[in-house]
């Protein structure tokens, strides 16, 4: 059996979900009415049910995200919602809170969300043995670590492939809640990481002013797909449940074509759903929202990953500004621009700034407001008007299931048999008198032309055969009616033939790899506590949201490192780092102040509130 490899797309709502399917997604993930980590991307049970029907026609899957931490008074509401999701046949739930593992659940498949901070092989094996079918891996992992995890347990592994990155280990960012009681783990992240900060050293001197020091580039490991599959990944996830339809269609179609090229003629792997897509646009990741791209740590730490100038979308690099000509700009590769484009550049204050292009004429871009730009300024396009217009059209991405049609005769008339790419068969009988055609000429070609008109159905007829013993006549209206009926039936047969996988949780008591859990395990209710206690945990700290001490807390742990970005890392950049920085380094944003702590052994950075006390680590262990 070939192993199925899946592209998993985000869906803000039903429309985005259907667009993702039409663009080639093998699965989509969508927010439930409550308890999703994007509180403004919720959907009704009815809409999710519609999406499930549409996806299942293509044998694509729908996963529902329930990845916030739960409070005691929410447990029963959550449990009831899960039963409703089971009833509408969703394929799996993506969960963070272990309370769900303790509930009286229907036999529904569970995936461990990336918020569960899945980066240790032993903890991932624990989750598999506790009943998780799939684990969404932490984005910080490298190929070697993924391979180690894959070898340790045969759980399905899902990994992000494109989209925005959380600078913190997922599920372990408390910046937002510590600043104003909006909890990221409860679906309301305030994105403090995208704000501008000043960096101040231990002498009180400002090293960097007004820079987005915690904002990092977006993720793109699409060129690593073969290596990631080799390491054990079976699902490639696109980030972006709040992104627009152009982003979804562009990202999905780009990855569909990339993955198809890898799968073609491959003996070990195959795609995870049915149908083939056609596109009226050329997808490119830099044409939709992005802050520039990084492969993060997939190949180890080897490059700068900060996006300090701006947390906004940079877009596609066009070229340098050659000169300003009266009230227009002459830009390298200016012929690529269109009326209505949005351009972006970095101004003298090292901030992102923008221009709207009213019209492009004779290679010159006429802006709505002429701003003073230096010659040589790098110009990016972050709003490609012509591209957006094409992609937004409903017919810009079309997905069709291949079929073979055979029109033949029987005792009292005719029958049309449709066989699809998955081997499902639909047969329609037509009682009709058999009369020869005028002049006894074959009308087989005319019949084929009519049968080929699959129009707005999800099918295309790749091969059409007409097998008659004589040159029988059939009215066009009857041919069309048979075609319509055979495809309607085929859809019903495909839906009936789709089996939602079921998995009934059995409570286990195998030991959890830790016996003491700090606040970063996000235990916020009695059921999660019960779950861990049954697995041998003896000490459990409450979730941050229930106990934090204002001003003194650790609010983030991250693999990203400001010292490394400044080329001051005592391990990787010893030869070029020059003078050591005087610590503690402090990030300041208005009244907000954070201290940075560098843990060089695990190669991590921690962010603490201003009144926190900790010892500064010396690099004596090297």
TrEMBL record:
Q: What InterPro entries does this protein's entry cite?
A: Pept_U32_collagenase, Peptidase_U32, RNA/ubiquinone_mod_enzymes
Q: Which residues cross the membrane?
A: none
Name the source's superkingdom. Answer: Bacteria
Query: Where do the Peptidase U32 collagenase domain residues begin and end?
Result: 379-494
One Pfam family assigned to this protein is: Peptidase_U32
Q: Know the name of this protein?
A: U32 family peptidase
């Amino acid at each position: 059996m070939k192993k199925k490899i899946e592209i998993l797309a985000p869906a803000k709502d039903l429309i985005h979900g259907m667009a993702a399917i039409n663009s080639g997604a093998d699965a989509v993930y969508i927010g439930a009415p409550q308890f999703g980590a994007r509180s403004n991307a919720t959907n009704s049970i009815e809409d999710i049910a519609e999406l499930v029907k549409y996806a299942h026609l293509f044998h694509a899957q729908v996963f529902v995200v329930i990845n916030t931490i739960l409070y005691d008074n929410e447990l029963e509401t959550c449990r009831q919602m899960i039963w409703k999701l089971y009833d509408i046949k969703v394929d799996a739930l993506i969960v963070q809170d272990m309370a769900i593992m303790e509930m009286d659940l229907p036999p529904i498949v569970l995936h461990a969300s990336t918020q569960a901070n899945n980066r240790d092989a032993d903890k991932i094996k624990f989750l598999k043995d506790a009943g998780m079918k799939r684990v969404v891996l932490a984005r910080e992992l490298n190929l070697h670590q993924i391979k180690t995890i894959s070898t340790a347990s045969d759980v399905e592994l899902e990994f992000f492939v494109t989209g925005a990155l959380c600078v913190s280990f997922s599920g372990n960012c408390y910046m937002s809640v510590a600043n104003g009681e909006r909890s990221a783990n409860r679906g309301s992240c305030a994105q403090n990481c995208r704000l501008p900060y000043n960096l101040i050293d231990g002498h009180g001197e400002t090293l960097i002013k007004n820079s987005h020091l915690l904002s990092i580039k977006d993720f793109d490991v699409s060129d690593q797909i073969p290596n990631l599959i080799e390491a054990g990944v079976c699902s490639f996830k696109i980030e972006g449940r709040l992104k627009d339809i152009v982003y979804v269609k562009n990202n999905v179609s780009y990855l569909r074509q990339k993955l198809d090229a890898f799968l073609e003629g491959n003996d070990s792997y195959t795609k995870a759903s049915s149908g083939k897509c056609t596109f009226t646009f050329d997808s490119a990741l830099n044409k939709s929202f992005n802050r520039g791209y990084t492969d993060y740590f997939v190949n180890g730490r080897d490059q700068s990953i900060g996006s300090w100038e701006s947390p906004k979308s940079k877009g596609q690099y066009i070229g340098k500004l050659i000169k300003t000509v009266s009230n227009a700009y002459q830009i390298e590769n200016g012929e690529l621009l269109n009326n209505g484009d949005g351009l972006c550049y970095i101004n003298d204050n090292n901030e992102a700034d923008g221009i709207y292009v009213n019209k492009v004429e004779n290679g010159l871009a006429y802006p709505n407001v002429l701003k003073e730009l230096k010659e040589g300024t790098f110009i990016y396009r972050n709003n490609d008007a012509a591209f957006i217009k094409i992609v937004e059209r409903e017919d810009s991405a079309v997905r069709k299931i291949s079929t073979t049609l055979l029109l033949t005769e029987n005792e009292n008339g005719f029958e049309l048999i449709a066989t699809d790419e998955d081997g499902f068969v639909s047969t329609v009988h037509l009682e009709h008198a058999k009369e020869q055609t005028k002049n006894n000429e074959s009308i087989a070609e005319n019949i084929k032309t009519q049968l080929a008109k699959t129009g707005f159905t999800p099918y295309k007829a790749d091969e059409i055969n007409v097998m008659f013993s004589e040159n029988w006549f059939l009215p066009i209206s009857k041919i069309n009616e048979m075609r319509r009926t055979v495809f309607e039936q085929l859809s019903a047969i495909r839906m009936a033939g789709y089996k939602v996988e079921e998995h009934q949780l059995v409570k286990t008591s195998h030991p959890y790899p830790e016996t003491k859990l700090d606040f970063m395990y996000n235990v916020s209710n009695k059921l999660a506590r019960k779950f861990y206690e049954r697995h041998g945990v003896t000490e459990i700290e409450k979730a941050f949201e229930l106990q934090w001490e204002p001003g003194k807390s650790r609010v983030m742990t991250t693999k990203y490192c400001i010292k490394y970005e400044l080329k001051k890392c005592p391990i990787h950049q010893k030869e070029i780092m020059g003078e050591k920085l005087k610590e503690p380094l402090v990030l300041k944003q208005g009244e907000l102040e954070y201290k940075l702590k560098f843990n060089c052994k695990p190669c991590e950075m921690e962010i603490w509130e201003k009144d926190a006390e900790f010892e500064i680590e010396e690099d004596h262990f090297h």
